[in-house]
Sequence to fold (648 residues):
Amino acid sequence: MKTSKKEKLSLFKKMLTVRAFEQKAGELFQQNLIPGFIHLSIGEEASSIGTCSVLRTDDYVASTHRGHGHMIGKGADPRMMFAELFGKATGYCKGKGGSMHIADFSVGILGANGVVGGGFPIMVGAGLSIKLRKTDQVGVVFFGDGAANRGTFHEACNMAAILKLPIIFLCENNLYASTTPSEYTLAGGSVAGRAGGYGIPGHVIDGNDILEVRNVVEKAVAKARKGKGPSIVENMTYRYRGHFEGDPQKYRSTDEIDTHRKTSDPIERFKKHLQKEGILTTELEEKIKKDVTKLIDEAVQFGQDAPLPRPEDALEDLFVNP
Amino acid sequence: MSNRELSCSTALREAMREEMERDDTIFIIGEDLVAHGGIFGQFEGLPERFPGRVIDSPISETCIVGSGVGAALTGMRPVVDMHFADFVTTGMDEIANQMAKIRYMFGGQAKIPMVLWAPDGGGLSAAAQHSQSLENWFVHIPGLKVVAPSEPSDVKGLIKAAIRDDDPVIFFQHKRLFAQTGHVPEDEYIIPIGSAAVKRPGKDITILTYSRMTYLCLEAAEQLAKEEIDVEIVDLRTLKPLDFALIAESVKKTYNVLIVHEACLTGGFGGEIAARIGEELFDYLDAPVMRIGAKDVPIPFSPVMEDFVLPKVSDVVEGVKKVLNR
Fold:
């Protein structure tokens, strides 16, 4: 697909936004200002932003515990995201969800999920709903290499395939399921390689190349929109941070992380492309970075200033009709 | 007024047909629905009447339940057929962690107008994995409404309420009651979720029960009437939310309580009701609250053993006498 200069700059800004959001979230977590635990996707920005960039607002996304990028990619407001991370009353989930259950239904995010592989069956239902309502929406279910070994993955791929549901199974293969290498957990060695068993297309791609992500996902989306059924896309990527913030990461070396960062950082690679195309000047880059910093600083401020929920608010929002 | 009698199965089917005609966002998904209208024939005729809205699924219970959640989140009103209530175990994450929690976790952004229809109960020599009464598992999980009707008119009125409810409802329907007949009004009606009903008024003792045990208790009450013991039977119909007001009203009249359910005694719903009566109505009790439930073993296959394990009319008769010290 063709990507205009303007679109490219917007993609670049969004990738920087995700990274700045997560770096800031990591800092605040280390300062004990964010309770609980958080999972960062730093290093995976081409996958989240590239994928979401080919979706419409009314398309659905089922996100994961590592879902800040999906939220920002789909158009969620970083201010309400930070408010949620701080456990505040004006956060996306009024402080009831936190990072792991962040959601914005107004932009089609059906929620991050604390259960690995929990999004698959939900997306099958959303796909079924699209089919029954006869709209041309599509749904993307993000998941990691670890989730590909859940039974939900098999049931959902099979069901989506036989019912020809408009779903893209979007694997963000960052090589580790928590602490366990996918090399060890993944029979057959590839998630998308399993697509053949369901008679649907499977693509393994360089998930750190945002333009490739866009190209491939866009084709899968177009196919799904036409009623031609689901696809699996496996974005090969890498996370620089631990599984969770505070993860001692005994399962890999700092050398390994540095190598990935130096050779395949999605933002650096896209920046080089933009410079080569003459789209990004040093001044423009500085301006974009300044805008992003301002956006994130304001979002953090909004979150910090936001009111705490009343303790008894814990009793609200369980039922529509209690 | 007509005296028309329907079976529980027909009452369910009639309600489904009326609801699906009224609202085209309602659909049914589950295994073996299209060819036979479900394995109990419970949805017979609906696949032909509503093409595309009764959907056969592969044997993928996790995905069946989860697809209900996803469809409900995106504007539909799914009725998910669990095949046998026992198979909830295969979709348990979708029930306990998704269906029950999604609205709350997301701060009320979403609603899940979904019914999980689960045929449960023993008495059919269906053995350990097709005979259970698991309702109390779900009572324990905040975010779910739990319904377990007995007679056909309640089945019809409550399934309609469940479908129209914007929250997830688990609807247990006892397999042994599919053929049970009873009067079902012709005119449109709804029975609100959370309302119990006095199925037999009496003054000496309150029996709190639900589902198939209601019929068993009615039979026991007839026997006890011959011995001049006047039993009041309250059919809870909904376990969550619980109609404790009606329970209290009855207890304040009879001062004696026996709880009867088909589920195993230990950890069953009876313990919860007994505790609440103890906490809130102690001054109205003439005797300790007693419970009757199945013996604490899996349901065995051979009829002689199954009959032994499940509560019987004679157990209820004895239980009443024990509470009344007679």
Summary: The domain at 5-299 of chain A is CATH 3.40.50.970 (Rossmann fold). Chain A touches chain B through 47 residues (CB under 8 Å). The CA atoms of residues 158 and 198 of chain A lie 6 Å apart. Chain A has a mean pLDDT of 97.
